[in-house]
């Protein structure tokens, strides 16, 4: 017996229960409350409506597009890790591929329906910048390197070699035990509070190009070097424009998506057997 029928297309109770099982994040095995089930039911009906809209518009996902998406996902996993992912998601290979195909189709039809309707005028970007300028302020930063050594003697020796002219980056690659050793100890741009407090104090008081005395933490003895500094500043509008446009586009897309789905929902014929929930 179907739980709901959407424009003549049934959603079976078993299908809905599997959906809830995959998404319900309660730590216990307790039955989700009715309001949670209604939330998930609305989500499944919404997905069904959008997929029906894709069919009406003739939007499809090609095998080549699906294969490329599968390759992209699997690039981030080893074979055992990917197998474990399927286990964790309670799906087999064919079911996972179908779920991925549906996700691609949902995005494709949504892009088709919404992208041409989104316009971000320059005036909106400027208004956002004026309203949020102080929030966009960037703190003082340092571009730094570090080498992490196991003992104070090793750290002193490392520091001395750099001060005598050896290259910090090459020495860090060879000797550092830190996670960024492969990059020559490069920490990138660091803001206050992003590193351990003892390192923070040194980094924001150390002159450019100078090499610090060894700094002890629970991870070992750190030798630091500041490559460059940036003063605290408020970036200009031109610099922040791409970020602001992305933010405004995301907000506009969400608004338009909700309107679009509401329009589809109003045209739909939906029957729900609430007694099965």
Structural commentary:
This protein has two domains: 2-118 and 250-276, Triger factor/SurA peptide-binding fold (Orthogonal Bundle); 141-230, Chitinase A, domain 3 (Roll). Strands 4-3-6-5 form a four-stranded antiparallel beta sheet, sandwiched between helices. It is α+β, with helices and mostly antiparallel strands. The chain is 53% helix and 14% strand.
What does the secondary structure layout of this molecule look like, with pairings?
Elements: E1 2-6, E2 9-12, H1 13-23, H2 34-57, H3 63-74, H4 79-88, H5 93-114, H6 122-132, E3 141-149, H7 152-163, H8 168-175, E4 186-190, H9 197-203, E5 215-217, E6 220-230, H10 237-267, E7 270-272
Antiparallel strand pairs: 1-2, 1-7, 3-4, 3-6, 5-6
Helix pairs in contact: 1-2, 2-5, 6-10
């Amino acid at each position: 017996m179907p739980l709901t029928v959407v424009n003549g297309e049934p959603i079976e109770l078993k299908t809905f229960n599997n959906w809830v099982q995959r998404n319900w994040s309660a730590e216990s095995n307790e039955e989700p409350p009715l309001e949670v089930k209604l939330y998930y039911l609305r989500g499944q009906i919404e997905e069904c409506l959008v997929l029906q809209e894709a069919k009406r518009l003739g939007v499809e996902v090609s095998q080549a597009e699906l294969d490329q998406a599968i390759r992209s996902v699997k690039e981030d996993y080893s074979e055992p890790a990917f197998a474990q992912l399927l286990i964790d998601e309670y799906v087999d290979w064919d079911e996972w591929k179908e779920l991925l195909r549906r996700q691609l189709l949902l995005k494709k039809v949504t892009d088709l329906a919404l992208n041409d309707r989104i316009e971000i005028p320059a005036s909106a970007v400027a208004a956002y910048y004026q309203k949020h300028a102080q929030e966009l302020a960037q703190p003082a930063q340092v571009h730094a390197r570090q080498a992490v050594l196991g003992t104070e003697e090793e750290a002193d020796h490392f520091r001395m070699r750099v001060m005598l002219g050896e290259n910090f980056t090459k020495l860090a690659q060879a000797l550092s035990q830190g996670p960024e050793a492969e990059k020559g100890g490069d920490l990138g741009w660091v803001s206050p509070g992003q590193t351990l407090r003892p390192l923070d104090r040194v980094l924001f008081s150390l002159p450019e190009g100078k090499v610090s005395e060894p700094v002890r933490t629970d991870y070992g003895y750190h030798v630091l070097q500041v490559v460059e500094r940036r003063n605290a500043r408020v970036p200009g509008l031109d610099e922040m424009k791409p970020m602001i446009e992305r933010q405004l586009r995301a907000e506009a897309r969400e608004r338009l998506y909700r309107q679009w789905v509401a329009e589809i929902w109003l045209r739909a014929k939906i029957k729900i057997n609430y007694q099965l929930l």
